[in-house]
C-alpha cells in the first residue's frame, strides 16, 4: 500500500530518534502501513541477511520462524555495514547483528534463535596453542566488519593486538588468511569445530585448521530499530521462535 503523505519518508530515513516514537504515539498501528503489507494473509516484511551467510542453513531457519509468525520475508543479502545502517534507519529487520551494550542503546533484539560458536581458524602450517584470549598476543587477527567479541578482546586490541577487517564474506577472510595478512581468522558458525573444518576445506586454497577451543559463543537474534513500528513484530517473532524451538534444534543438528 503506497502512502502519499511525506511523513513516512522522514519516519523511515531517520535514525532511531524521538520523532519516531512520537509517530507511534500519535498514529498507532497506522505507522506500520508503509513498512509492510499483507500478502495472502501473511505480513510481508523486509529482512536483511549477511552477504555470504550459509544459505543452506539460514533460509530454512527463517522460513521456520516466518511460517509460525505469519510473516512472508522479503530477503536481501547485504554487507554488514549496510545491514547495520539500514536497521538503525528503521527500514528493515536483520538477522546477524550481534548484541553489544552500544547497540542495545538504539536497537531492540529478539530472543535467541539459536547460538553459535566464534572459532579461530589458522593456516595448517601456522598452528599454535590456543586456550584463552591472552594466547593471541603477538598474532594478527582477521575479523568481519562490525564483529564484537567482548571485553577481553577489546582489552587485547587496546594492548596492541593487530586486527584486519574484511567485508564479511568468508571467501575474502580465507583469502586474507592464505595471503598471510593475518595469523588467525575469526569465523562465526553453528557448526562444531571438526564439521566447520571439513566445510572450510572445500574452499579454494583453504588448507586450514579450526582451533578446538572457541573464542566465545554468540546468540543469533533478530534486530530492529528501537521505537520503530517494526519493533512491534518482536513479540510475534519471539512466540514463533519458542513454538519452533524443537524444529530449530533439529535443523542445527542436520546442517552441513
Describe the protein in words.
With 256 residues, this protein is α/β, with parallel strands linked by helices. The chain has 2 domains: 7-113 and 221-254, D-Maltodextrin-Binding Protein, domain 2; 116-218, Periplasmic binding protein-like II (D-Maltodextrin-Binding Protein, domain 2, 3-Layer(aba) Sandwich). It has 9 helices and 12 strands. The protein has helices spanning 7-13, 18-27, 55-69, 80-88, 151-158, 170-178, 193-200, 234-243, 245-254, and strands at 37-39, 42-50, 71-78, 93-95, 107-109, 114-123, 140-144, 162-166, 184-189, 208-210, 216-220, 222-225. The strands form 2 sheets. Strands 1, 2, 3, 4, 5 and 12 form a 6-stranded mixed beta sheet that branches. Strands 6, 7, 8, 9, 10 and 11 form a 6-stranded mixed beta sheet that branches. Helix 3 links the parallel strand 2 and strand 3. Helix 3 crosses helix 8 (234-243) and helix 3 (55-69) runs antiparallel to helix 9 (245-254). The protein is globular. Residues 1-35 have low confidence and may be disordered.
Short descriptors:
256 residues; D-Maltodextrin-Binding Protein, domain 2; 2 domains; six-stranded mixed beta sheet
Amino acid at each position: 500500500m503506497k502512502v502519499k503523505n511525506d511523513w513516512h519518508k522522514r519516519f523511515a530515513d531517520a535514525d532511531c530518534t524521538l520523532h519516531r516514537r512520537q509517530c507511534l504515539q500519535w498514529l498507532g498501528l497506522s505507522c506500520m502501513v508503509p513498512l509492510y503489507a499483507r500478502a495472502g494473509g501473511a505480513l510481508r516484511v523486509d529482512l536483511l541477511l549477511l552477504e555470504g551467510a550459509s544459505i543452506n542453513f539460514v533460509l530454512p531457519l527463517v522460513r521456520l520462524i516466518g511460517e509460525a509468525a505469519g510473516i512472508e520475508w522479503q530477503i536481501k543479502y547485504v554487507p554488514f555495514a549496510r545491514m547495520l545502517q539500514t536497521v538503525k534507519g528503521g527500514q528493515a529487520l536483520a538477522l546477524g547483528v550481534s548484541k553489544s551494550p552500544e547497540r542495545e542503546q538504539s536497537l531492540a533484539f529478539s530472543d535467541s534463535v539459536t547460538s553459535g560458536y566464534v572459532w579461530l581458524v589458522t593456516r595448517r602450517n601456522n598452528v599454535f596453542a590456543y586456550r584463552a584470549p591472552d594466547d593471541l598476543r603477538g598474532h594478527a587477527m582477521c575479523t568481519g566488519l562490525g564483529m564484537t567479541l567482548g571485553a577481553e578482546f577489546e582489552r587485547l586490541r587496546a594492548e596492541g593486538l593487530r586486527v584486519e577487517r574484511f567485508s564479511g564474506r568468508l571467501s575474502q577472510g580465507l583469502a586474507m588468511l592464505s595471503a598471510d595478512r593475518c595469523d588467525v581468522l575469526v569465523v562465526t558458525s553453528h557448526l562444531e569445530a571438526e564439521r566447520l573444518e571439513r566445510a572450510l576445506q572445500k574452499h579454494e586454497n583453504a588448507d586450514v585448521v579450526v582451533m578446538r577451543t572457541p573464542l566465545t559463543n554468540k546468540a543469533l537474534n533478530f534486530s530492529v530499530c528501537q521505537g520503530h513500528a517494526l519493533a512491534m513484530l518482536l513479540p510475534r517473532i519471539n512466540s514463533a521462535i519458542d513454538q519452533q524451538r524443537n524444529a530449530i534444534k533439529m535443523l542445527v543438528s542436520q546442517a552441513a
